[in-house]
Write a structure and sequence with these properties.
Layout: E1 10-13, E2 19-23, H1 28-37, E3 44-48, H2 54-66, E4 69-73, E5 78-82, H3 93-96, H4 106-113, E6 115-118, H5 132-140, E7 144-148, E8 151-155, E9 163-165, H6 171-182, E10 187-191, H7 197-208, E11 212-214, E12 220-224, E13 233-235, H8 240-252, E14 256-260, H9 264-277, E15 280-284, E16 287-291, E17 296-297, E18 300-303, H10 314-322, E19 324-332, H11 342-347, E20 351-355, E21 359-364, E22 372-374, H12 378-390, E23 394-398, H13 401-404, H14 410-416, E24 420-423
Parallel strand pairs: 2-14, 3-13, 9-10, 17-19, 18-19, 22-23
Antiparallel strand pairs: 1-23, 1-24, 3-5, 4-5, 6-8, 7-8, 10-12, 11-12, 14-16, 15-16, 19-21, 20-21
Bound molecules: uridine-diphosphate-N-acetylglucosamine and phosphoenolpyruvate (PEP).
Pathway: Cell wall biogenesis; peptidoglycan biosynthesis
Enzyme class: transferase
Active site: 124 (proton donor)
């Protein structure tokens, strides 16, 4: 199974105002934990609105490797998983190295079967990305965790409820510990938990499965372990990062775009900043209209855990800042090396200076000029596509396999809004 195109480069010719409607897909970062949660039960689980991406396909492969029966009906965006016959507990390094969320099978495997092993997970290169929050939590719940040459081996006859304090509200760490706690004996509290919308979504799925959970979506989660969980049926929530990417594109091209299937509360941090920068944002239930109004103003963003500004949109917003009048500032407070894309943006003529790897100053507006650049990870790839949309002439973005991990049909969707964009 593979995502449609094998192209390695995207070509964009800038200067077109985007106009029209685009349907936003299901969120990658909600689909992956939801799929991992199916390991907690021997009953069938059914997910709709699953985006067809490299990462969801890797998760399908990983679940199958472990012995799950998985069908991905890509045309209907539907995944069916039955983990009744799991026969191994080792996540293979060649899959684990391809995405961070692969580590999310550890919590469910450990909790249901008492055993899991994995190499350190891959994913975008954004700086230090340990899994110590997860490992410390498993240990506190009674697991023996050993470090081997290949990674981590986790074992427990049974997990026990515990008081867990997270030094940092890790997103996938919270998801792993939440899933592990559902089948533990006794009560687990997770303090300083991540409250990203994808965690609330996972919580609602786990509750449908029969888990006894309160407080998801807040920094204090409480889980009363149960002996057994049942199957679930759910539709993946809209991808706020894909939606944000198209919203920013509308604002920077002086366009007018309606995004369908979007969740307003999840978009609030971006909505505030778009309006502050001078774009118009209107809501009609689950549709969001974004209109550029000619001049954009300089702003400051601080990438922080939700409800702070999402780090996954930090690079995309930097493009808006190159088009805004005055000096803008970015503080990246989630990852310690997520501004590497600045060098690629500079190749297009952006006036961007990085200080201490976590701050950037951008002066604008700058007339960007097309050039050959490379995606370094998923979101820097999207940032370069956006830059290409406003750059004079042709921009060629290489290494687009990163984009395929997180954006379904990005070229087709931008083309449907009038952009001159194609695969090369
Ligand atoms: C698959 C998925 O959902 N990925 C998302 C997830 O990544 P991910 O779950 O990896 O992000 P985390 O919240 O874990 O990491 C954020 C910060 O926490 C630190 N940290 C993390 C774990 C740990 O054990 N110790 C520790 O110190 C990291 O070094 C990093 O600086 O959340 C990020 C922040 O919203 C998003 O950018 C990613 O798109
Ligand atoms: C950082 C991301 O993914 P991952 O955590 O898998 O690297 C992302 O989706 O932007």
């Amino acid at each position: 199974m593979q995502v449609a195109t094998e192209a390695k480069t995207i070509r964009v010719r800038g200067g077109t105002r985007l106009y029209g409607r685009v349907a936003i897909g299901g969120a990658k970062n909600a689909a992956l934990p939801a799929m991992a949660a199916a390991l907690l039960t021997d009953e069938e689980c059914l997910l709709d609105n699953v985006p067809v991406l490299e990462d969801t396909l890797v998760m399908v492969e990983l679940l199958r490797w472990l012995g799950a029966d998985v069908e991905f009906d890509q045309e209907n965006r539907r995944v069916r998983i039955c983990a009744a016959n799991i026969n191994r507990f080792d996540a293979p390094p060649e899959l684990v190295e391809r995405m961070r969320a692969s580590f999310l099978v550890s919590g469910p495997l450990l909790s249901r079967f008492g055993e899991a092993s994995s190499s350190p997970p891959g994913g975008c290169r954004l700086g230090t990305r340990p899994v110590d929050v997860d490992l410390r939590g498993f240990r506190r719940m009674g697991a023996e965790v050993t470090h081997t040459d290949g990674g981590y081996v986790m074992r427990a006859r049974r997990l026990y409820g515990a008081e867990l304090y997270m030094d940092y509200p890790s997103h996938t760490g919270t998801e792993n510990l939440l899933m592990a706690a559902t089948l533990a004996r006794g009560t687990t509290t997770i303090v300083n938990a991540s409250s990203e919308p994808e965690i609330s979504f996972l919580g609602s799925i786990l509750r449908d499965m029969g888990a006894r959970i309160t407080g998801v979506g807040t920094p204090h989660i409480r889980v009363h372990g149960v002996d057994r969980l049942r199957g679930y049926r759910a539709a993946i929530l809209p991808d706020r990062i894909e939606a944000g990417t198209f919203a920013i594109a509308a604002a920077i091209t002086d366009g007018e775009v309606i995004l369908d299937n979007v969740s307003e509360p999840d978009m609030l941090p971006l909505t505030y900043k778009l309006r502050e920068a001078g774009a118009e944002v209107w809501w009609n239930q689950t549709s969001m209209l974004v209109r550029g109004r000619g001049e954009l103003h300089s702003t400051e963003i601080q990438a922080l855990p939700f409800p702070g500004f999402p780090t996954d949109l930090q690079a995309a917003f930097a493009v808006l800042m190159t088009q805004a009048k005055g000096q803008s500032r970015i503080f990246e407070r989630v990852f310690n090396d997520r501004l590497r894309y600045a060098a690629e943006l500079a190749k297009l003529g952006a006036d961007i200076t990085v200080i201490d790897k976590q701050q950037a100053i951008i002066n604008g507006p700058t007339r960007l000029r097309g050039a050959d650049v490379e995606a370094l990870d998923i979101r820097s790839g999207a940032c370069l596509v956006l830059a290409g949309l406003v750059a004079e002439g042709e921009t060629r973005i290489g290494q687009i396999q990163h984009l395929r991990r997180g954006y379904e049909d990005i070229v087709e969707k931008f083309a449907s809004l009038g952009a001159e964009i194609s695969y090369l």
